[in-house]
């Protein structure tokens, strides 16, 4: 499987499309340095998820220190040609913590678990096998 990606012009970040529950599309940053996939709670709420439906909380270490995130289970989570059922994501309120972004979150390594992948930055292609 090959996926053509775009780079954020100013920062060079790799942008990917994510589909949630077979109907909602979000723009996220592929972050191979992030252990877990994290979505802005405001985006999840706008997709119709009740923020009270979390299945727990977890503390994670970020570049800015340790934060607590809520954990949600998404029925269907897809990106880069991969589909994960009952995929657990972390949810964090970006705006409340001073994070202003044009993107809805980070696609972490947990999504790519069990997959061999290569990121070709010259051709802007991610190959998965």
Which structural class should the secondary elements be placed in? mainly beta
| Secondary structure: helix percent | under 10%
Name the average pLDDT: 89
Give the CATH class.
Answer: Mainly Beta
What does this molecule look like?
There is one protein chain. The protein has a single domain, classed as Beta Barrel (Cathepsin D, subunit A, domain 1). It has helices at 41-46, 109-112; strands at 2-4, 6-7, 14-20, 24-30, 38-40, 56-62, 65-79, 82-92, 105-107, 117-120, 125-128. The chain has 129 residues and is mainly beta. The protein is globular and about 40 Å long. The chain has a 6-stranded mixed beta barrel with strand order 3-4-9-5-8-7. Strands 1-11-10 form a 3-stranded antiparallel beta sheet, with no helix packed on it.
Please tag this protein with its features.
about 130 residues, mainly beta, Cathepsin D, subunit A, domain 1, 6-stranded mixed beta barrel, 3-stranded antiparallel sheet, 2 helices, 11 strands, globular
Give a concise summary.
By secondary structure, the protein is mainly β. It has one domain (2-128): Cathepsin D, subunit A, domain 1, CATH 2.40.70. The chain contains 2 helices and 11 strands; from the N terminus they run βββββαββββαββ.
């Amino acid at each position: 499987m090959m996926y053509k990606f775009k780079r954020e012009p100013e920062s060079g970040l790799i942008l990917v499309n994510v589909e949630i529950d077979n109907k909602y599309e979000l723009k996220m940053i592929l972050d191979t340095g992030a252990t877990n996939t994290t979505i802005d709670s405001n985006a999840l709420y706008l997709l119709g998820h009740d923020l009270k439906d979390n299945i727990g909380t977890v503390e994670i270490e970020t570049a800015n220190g340790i934060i607590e995130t809520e954990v949600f289970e998404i029925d269907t989570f897809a990106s880069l040609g991969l589909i994960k059922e009952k995929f657990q994501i972390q949810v964090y309120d970006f705006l409340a913590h001073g994070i202003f972004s044009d993107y809805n979150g980070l696609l972490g390594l947990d999504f790519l678990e069990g997959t061999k992948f290569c990121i070709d930055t010259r051709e802007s292609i991610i190959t998965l096998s």
